[in-house]
Design goal:
α1 packs across α2 and α6 packs antiparallel against α9. The strands form six sheets. The chain has a four-stranded antiparallel β-sheet, with no helix packed on it. A three-stranded antiparallel β-sheet has the order 1-2-3, with no helix packed on it. The protein contains 16 helices and 16 strands. By secondary structure, the chain is an alpha+beta fold.
Length: 541
């Protein structure tokens, strides 16, 4: 039975006896009989969209992001609002900082199982060559910046704009990289019509060309020439036509849906709140400034004559007092003048029934109570503790440490995500070119490339990128903890971490470089303090 949008399925079992109607009832959890015939409720089905009470959730909305407008709003919010600038700066400083450091970690277990033995200095040589190359301008297509500066711009564009494009090119036996803002990735317009199909039936969506499997095969970059008001488009293929290597790819920030082809700013959900909070802040500061320009107000009671006390001061100055002036008031005014001359402070003789009151507003007292909860909510929306955003650790030790630990975890996740999108694909291309040009020895790598043995290739390029860890509130406690984890083999205490991991946790740089520097300094100290004096005593210079 169907009534409106409800479908009723009746399942009533009749009693075999006339005297006991309930003897053959099917128990459905209801102890008190009710419903139809005093014994049964019908079972009905209903479409459920999350709304329990009709009308409470309103219309069902399918959001279709306007990527260009969201990008421009994101740029504008970053450039004009201190809240977004504060949050973004903290994120940039910790995720990227001065750049991420390569930790080359080839999977030797898999390589050795395939009969491949890496040279002992493979890791050292790879990291040394990578450090020199990425800190030079030769890795930049425009030959202006190093890789870490490009990484900073890339991260900014994906955070504030939503996405961007990076392009790699192989020139002079080396790989360089180019950054393209997502603002310039657009679907080509030919004859006032948007081209959405190619001859090979690939689909173009928001400037990205997809094949039938949904794989990105090309990107369209809009360009404006001086001699034409129309845009021109450059088609950049995602894979090299000869090498078949991935040479161009998109880097995404946030997507409102996995099916969307473009990204949106990380703070899209709070754009409106940030704008309102910024207007409130500006209005509050303006109101406080205007109130500060008014030192006091004159109030009058029912006995006031309505006179302006400042007018009397003016008349005194120009000696034009009214003849009707009361003698007593004149005497008081004279006393005020003498006080002014004696103390160098301004003194006013107020008319009867009037007085000065300090003029002010309550905005100074109520501002923090309104601003802080909203600021905290915005911080939470972008996974940033308010203490970190404001760099104010006013809570107790445990609370401050918990905030830093939470922030450190967020940074690790975000940093790893960005490294997977930016650093690692570029490192894979760079390492392949270095090996193919015999600058780095890696037996078995070329054969794996020719045979398309992805397991061996991926084992060679295994790596991770690390940045600066969150500093400990009590460095001494942290160092002691690291020392404990390093163990002491002489005492039979098995270490939990390596020396390299310990140096990374303590933010003291590369352990091997530090140790070699220590040995060199130690040897020089031994020579200066022990060897050289003995040589001088024996008459040897």
């Amino acid at each position: 039975m169907k009534i409106g949008n409800f479908e009723f399925n009746f399942n009533i079992q009749k009693s075999e006896t006339k005297n006991d109607v309930k003897s053959n009832n099917i128990f459905d959890g209801e102890l008190t009989a009710g419903g139809y015939g005093g014994s049964y409720w019908p079972i009905y089905t209903k479409s459920f969209d999350g709304e329990k009470t009709s009308g409470e959730l309103g219309l069902v909305v399918k959001l279709i992001p306007d990527h260009l407008r969201l990008r421009l709003r994101g740029y504008n919010a970053y450039n004009t609002t201190d809240v977004i600038k504060t949050l973004a700066s903290r994120r940039f400083q910790w995720v990227i900082g001065n750049g991420l450091k390569l930790e080359c970690e080839p999977n030797t277990t898999i390589l050795e199982s395939q009969g491949i033995t890496l040279p002992k200095d493979f890791k050292k040589i790879v990291e040394a060559r990578w450090k020199v190359y990425t800190n030079s301008h030769y890795c930049d297509y425009e030959k202006r910046r190093n890789l870490h500066s490009i990484a900073f711009d890339t991260y900014f564009d994906k955070f504030a704009g939503g996405d961007c494009l990076v392009i790699c090119r192989i020139e002079n036996s080396s790989v360089n990289i180019q950054f393209i803002s997502g603002e310039h990735i657009k679907s080509p317009i030919i004859g006032n019509e948007i081209l959405n199909k190619k001859a090979n039936e690939n689909t173009i969506v928001h400037g990205i060309e997809y094949d039938s499997r949904g794989q990105q095969v090309a990107f369209y970059i809009s360009k404006k020439t001086e001699n034409s008001i129309d845009l021109e488009y450059e088609r950049i293929e995602a894979y090299g036509p000869k090498s078949k290597r991935k040479l161009a790819w998109m880097i995404y920030g946030q997507k409102l849906s996995p099916d969307h082809k473009r990204g949106v700013p990380e703070f899209t959900q709070v754009l409106e709140k940030v704008a309102k909070l910024d207007r409130y802040t500006e209005a509050s500061v303006s109101k406080a400034e205007q109130a500060a320009n008014i030192l006091f107000a004159i109030t009058h009671d029912k006995d006031s004559t309505g006179e302006n006390p400042l007018e009397q001061v003016t008349k005194k100055k120009f000696k034009v007092l009214d003849k009707e002036e009361v003698d007593g008031y004149a005497l008081a005014d004279g006393l005020a003048n003498r006080i002014t001359q004696t103390t160098s402070n301004q003194t006013f003789n107020l008319p009867p029934g009037s007085k000065f009151e300090s003029f002010g507003t309550d905005i100074e007292n109520t501002f923090e109570g309104f601003h802080k909860p909203n600021f905290d909510s915005i911080c939470a929306s972008v996974d940033t503790p308010p203490e970190v955003a404001m760099q104010q650790y006013n809570s107790n030790y445990s609370a401050s440490r918990a905030a830093q630990n939470a922030w450190g975890y967020v940074i690790d996740v975000d940093r790893n995500n960005f490294a997977n999108q930016f650093y690692k694909p570029f490192y894979k291309l760079w390492l392949e070119v270095e090996i193919l040009t015999n600058k780095i020895q890696a037996d078995g790598f070329i054969q794996a490339l020719l045979s398309d043995d992805y397991m061996i290739v991926e084992s060679f390029i295994q790596c991770r990128f690390v940045g600066r860890n969150m500093p400990h509130i009590d460095p001494l406690k942290e160092i002691k903890a690291i020392r404990e984890m390093l163990g002491d083999p002489k005492l039979g205490i098995v270490p939990l971490i390596s020396h390299e991991q310990g140096a990374e946790m303590a933010n003291v740089g590369d352990w091997e470089e530090n140790y070699l520097e220590y040995r060199e300094e130690r040897d020089e100290t031994i020579i200066d303090e022990y060897v050289q004096p003995n040589l001088n005593n024996n008459g040897i210079n």
